[in-house]
Design goal:
The complex is a heterodimer of chains A (311) and B (294). With 311 residues, chain A is mostly helical. Chain A has 13 helices and four strands. The chains are: A mainly alpha (311), B mainly alpha (294).
């Protein structure tokens, strides 16, 4: 490089390296103190009995054994898997329907897009409270509407069969952020691909399966991974629903029959209600491993169903 | 060519007038679907507003009228007496503003290092930064609490502010993606003229990056405003509460006064919607760049 010649006393490459480290400094410091150290020490905590007030005592795998043998842990894991398995695809599918409708080359696209997006910026506490009100069994908007139609009206937040479906329903209202991602992907599908498909005599469905879906598959993979991670860490809505139902049950908000006890909630209660930091750390590490495995599996499987554009 | 093809198509499939009519029908059907969804999406907002303006008696009755019998602007005054809502607002605005400054400043510096400083380490740094996005918050949550507890910082804003000054990975990514679109020749030329990186960052890169700065700023503001778990863990005194935590004080154990809850929720939401409208362009661009959630 020519610029190397103008070097000065200090070697130019060294100078650039120093500048590089200094500019990246905030992240490097943060990474060491707020990520690397906590990761290591939390692994250590997970092998201890630790209540904050007294120093941690090493107990080996005892926390893991106790946690895995705890019914509430298993319940929270099952509830969380339920959400990961049902809420994630439901959200992506609904977002895809919205994005496809908006991709029909219609007028007023940006107005519709704005309207569908706005619910996602409502603070989660406010939107959860709002939906608790809408889904109120007696006075709620939805059940009164269902009554008008003469359809069965679930007792959304009292009946353990309906608490999680209610949560999924609420989640669809915030599908707007996924929709924006998918719409951008749809608009990036090269026109030539459609034209080639036309020449081949492809019908609408063929085009969707062989042209549209492969083209947007990287975005779907992205939404799948972020969606799974979000659902594995679900916390705020469950807390607010629990609190709104007045259901403080032995210091926790688990909803009816603990049907709203999620992994992150149970972890939080272990840490900050029961002060079992060892248990909570063990749970955090189990979550870490699950997240890593799920992400790895999603990436691994993506070889089969995700296509990256030729360019 | 376009014309040619469409003529061929219409000749093959339909009689002359069939195709445009079908297209018009399709457009109509799309608008119909979209309108129904629009109503469903907007209705919760209308219901929130409507409940917030009702009397207690009407709000907790079976009435589903959208227009309240008597419009109670008074509810919006009452909520300030029921809980220190003004205090919550000021606290939240303060916290969110400080965090915006922290994120925008530190993320842009790190992103500059990753995109316009020619050093070897950036090749290794970038994948590590991206990998940390996948790390569950819960893993670091407990050790960080222990640290802040030892430093006697639980019950202050510092545990909620300091993280914003060590650059969040998603925003570094967003900024880096944008900085990569700036031609390297600008930085190069300035380097040959003897300008320092700090000078180039401040005088060349920052002025060209208003949009991405706005995007990161708005995302940070919204996320801080809406954050629930952070304040739940660290803020133990009501006078420090942010809006997300403060909203809980309107939820009763047994009898929730829905007209007040909805009024408070409305006030918690309106500022964000206003900000969204001002920065909509940068906002949507930002999401398209990374797909991060607001």
């Amino acid at each position: 490089m020519q610029s190397c010649k103008g070097g000065g006393r200090m070697n130019n490459r060294k100078k650039e390296a120093v500048a590089g480290v200094l500019f990246a400094g905030p992240w490097i410091i943060g990474f060491i103190i707020f990520t690397l150290y906590p990761i290591v020490i939390s692994l250590y905590y997970s092998f201890t009995k630790f209540s904050v007030f007294k120093p941690p005592v090493f107990v080996g795998l005892q926390s893991y054994k106790e946690i895995i043998g705890n019914d509430l842990f298993l319940k929270s894991l099952a509830n969380t898997l339920y959400m990961a398995v049902f809420a994630t695809p439901a959200g992506i599918l609904f977002a895809l329907v919205l994005a496809l409708l908006l991709n029909m080359h219609i007028r007023g696209l940006s107005i519709y897009r704005t309207i569908f997006y706005i619910p996602t910026i409502v603070p989660q506490v406010a939107s959860t409270i709002l939906w608790v009100w809408i889904l109120n069994a007696r006075y709620g908007l939805l059940n009164n509407f269902l009554k008008m139609l003469g359809v069965y009206q679930p007792n959304w937040f009292q009946d353990p069969r309906f608490t999680k479906p209610a949560l999924i329903l609420m989640g669809l209202w915030t599908a707007g952020s996924s929709m924006v991602v998918l719409l951008a992907a749809l608009q990036d599908v090269p026109r030539t691909l459609y034209e080639v498909a036309d020449i081949d005599g492809a019908n609408r469905w063929d085009k969707f399966i062989y042209v549209v879906l492969p083209s947007i598959s990287p975005s779907v993979l992205y939404l799948l991974i972020t969606g799974l991670i979000y659902n594995f860490q679900l916390f705020t809505p469950a807390w607010i629903i629990g609190e709104s139902q007045g259901g403080l049950n032995q210091g926790v908000y688990g909803g009816p029959e603990n049907s709203l006890m999620f992994y992150a909630s149970f972890l939080y209660y272990n840490a900050f209600s029961y002060l079992k930091m060892g248990h909570a750390s063990a749970m955090a590490w189990i979550l870490f491993v699950i997240t890593a495995l799920v992400t790895w599996a999603a990436f691994k499987s993506s070889n089969k169903w995700v296509t990256y554009g030729g360019e | 060519m376009e014309v040619n093809k469409s003529m061929e198509n219409s000749a093959a499939n339909d009689i002359r007038t069939g195709a445009p009519r079908r297209k018009a029908f399709k457009t109509l059907l799309t608008h119909l679907c979209l309108s129904v969804i629009t109503i469903i999406f907007i209705f919760p907002f209308i219901w929130m507003l409507s409940t917030s303006l009702k009397e207690f008696r009407e709000a907790s009755s079976l009435s589903l009228d959208l227009i309240p019998e008597k419009i109670m602007w008074q509810n919006y005054v009452d909520i300030f007496q029921k809980a220190p809502f003004g205090r919550y607002m000021i606290n939240t605005v303060f916290l969110a503003s400080v965090n915006v400054i922290g994120q925008v400043l530190t993320c842009s510096l790190v992103a500059y290092s990753l995109s316009h400083i020619n050093w070897k380490g950036r090749k290794y740094l970038f994948p590590i930064i991206m990998a940390t996005i996948l790390l569950p918050y819960q893993v670091t949550m407990i050790p960080l609490y222990i640290i802040y507890n030892k430093l006697k910082l639980v019950g202050t804003y510092l545990p909620l502010i300091i993280p914003a000054f060590v650059a969040a990975p998603v925003y570094i990514f967003l900024m880096r993606q944008f900085f990569m679109t700036l031609p390297p020749s600008i930085v190069h030329a300035a380097r040959i003229d003897g300008a320092s990186h700090l000078k180039i960052y401040a005088a060349v890169v920052v002025p060209l990056s208003k949009n991405v700065f706005t995007a990161v700023g708005v995302f940070t503001f919204l996320n801080t405003w809406s954050d629930f778990m952070g304040p739940l863990i660290y803020l133990n005194k009501p006078e420090l509460y942010t809006i997300s935590i403060g909203l809980k004080s309107y939820i009763g154990e047994h009898n929730t006064e829905w007209h007040y809850v909805m009024a408070a929720s409305t006030l918690a939401t309106i500022p964000l919607i206003i900000i969204f409208f001002f920065a909509q362009k940068q906002f949507i661009e930002g999401i398209n760049m990374t797909g991060i959630k607001g």
